[in-house]
Amino acid sequence: RILITGSLGQLGTGLAKALRQKYGLDNVIMSDILKPTKDIFESGPYVYADILDFKNLQELIVSHRIDWVIHFSALLSAVGEFNIPLAMRVNIEGLHNVLELSKQYKLKLFVPSTIGAFGPTSPRNPTPDLTIQRPQTIYGVSKVHAELMGEYYRHKFGLDFRCLRFPGIISSDTNPGGGTTDYAVEIFHEALRVGHYKCYLRPDTRLPMMYIEDCLKSILKILEVPNEQLKLGTYNVTAMSFTPEELAEAIRKHIPNFEIEYEPDSRQTIADTWPMVFDDSNARNHWGWSHDNNLDDLVSIMLNALQPIYAKNE
Ligand code: VAH
After folding, report:
1. What is the pLDDT of residues 38-56, one digit of tens each?
2. What are the strands of the beta sheet with 240-242, ordered from one edge?
3. How many A from CA of 53 to the centre of ligand 1?
4. What is the pLDDT of residue 154?
5. CA of 75 to the centre of ligand 1 (A)
6. Whole-angstrom distance, CA of residue 4 vs CA of residue 220
7. Mutate to test the pocket of ligand 1, among 170, 181, 269 (most ligand atoms within 8 A of CB)
8. Cβ proximity of 60 and 49 under 8 Å
9. Residue 178 Cα, ligand 1 centroid: separation in angstroms?
10. What confidence score (pLDDT) does residue 176 get?
11. For a pocket test of ligand 1, which of 144, 163, 169, 205 has the largest count of ligand atoms closer than 8 A to its C-beta?
12. Where is the NAD-dependent epimerase/dehydratase domain (predicted)?
């Protein structure tokens, strides 16, 4: 059975749905430290799990017969900089607990990494899988640590560890929390609500991005890839790269009067150290990764999905 930690974040709900369709409702257990909404409770198994409580997690893994862990619990890039001690505990100590239990019980472990695992001294356009990684956020440092520790446990103990570095993920049904790429989600809500958006990044800030369905597709695929095809312990995956002004232009094809203004904040400093374009050719060549949604698909999907919410308010 599959346990998703931090499942109430941006990726968890969609992944639980996709995994339940493929492996059966009762074989996918969502978990987090928050109380979920009624429909999450009613959508399938949900349990309380604090990844900082080793015994709690151990008991969960044994009593629920877990054999795969999808480890989402983490503080993202922007929020991590405002609570470094907590980010260190959750992103590093929490990872250690999950790694140790995965080794002890021979679990398959998926941990997401990120474009944020690279820094200003990494090549930025494009950024390959294997290159210098000196990130300048606690989030990025903790994710490089997760990649290295997971690959070490794979090498030393044969742990079935799989890791994908994601670009900014864009979704309509779940709100991201505390990321640097979140402008690319907020912009759709504001475009429909008031026709105007104040962007916290400069107009020319190019970042790799992906629609959530492609993100979930990559996770389901990497979980099933035979070990011998995984020549790398960690793979970049991406779908597109765009700037706020390019995204605004694409939105104007649907909402002609949409206006955007720019007021860079501390997240600009983070974005300026990140990859501009991700090279994911290894994932495409080694295990057949491919994305389905490009920028125009993303914009029409997001606007169509969110339109009913804001149409009601008219
Ligand atoms: C963040 N959305 O902005 C997350 C992600 C690629 C960025 O890790 O922190």
Report:
1. 999 999 999 999 999 999 9
2. 168-170, 207-211, 240-242
3. 25
4. 96
5. 10
6. 13
7. 181
8. yes
9. 8
10. 73
11. 169
12. 2-237
How far does the centroid of ligand 1 lie from the alpha carbon of residue 83, in Å? 16
Task: Residue 17: name the closest of 260, 280, 160, 219 by CA.
Answer: 219
Q: 162 C-alpha to center of ligand 1: Å?
A: 19
* Ligand 1 neighbours by CB, cut-off 6 Å: 76-77, 114-116, 139, 166-168, 176, 179-181
Active site positions, annotated? 139
Residue range 110-163, pLDDT digits in tens = 999 999 999 999 999 999 999 999 999 999 999 999 999 999 999 999 999 999
**Among 73, 180, 206, which residue has the most ligand 1 atoms within 8 Å of its CB, making it the best to mutate?**
180
Contacts of 199 (CB under 8 A, 6+ apart): 183, 187, 244, 260, 261, 262, 263
Nearest CA to ligand 1 atom 8: 114
**Residue pointed to by tokens 């993202």:** 76
Atom of ligand 1 nearest to the CA of 180: 3
% of the chain with per-residue pLDDT over 90 = 96
Nearest atom in ligand 1 to 115's CA: 6
Q: Which amino acid is at 67?
A: D
Alpha-carbon torsion, ordered 62, 63, 64, 69, to 10 deg: -30
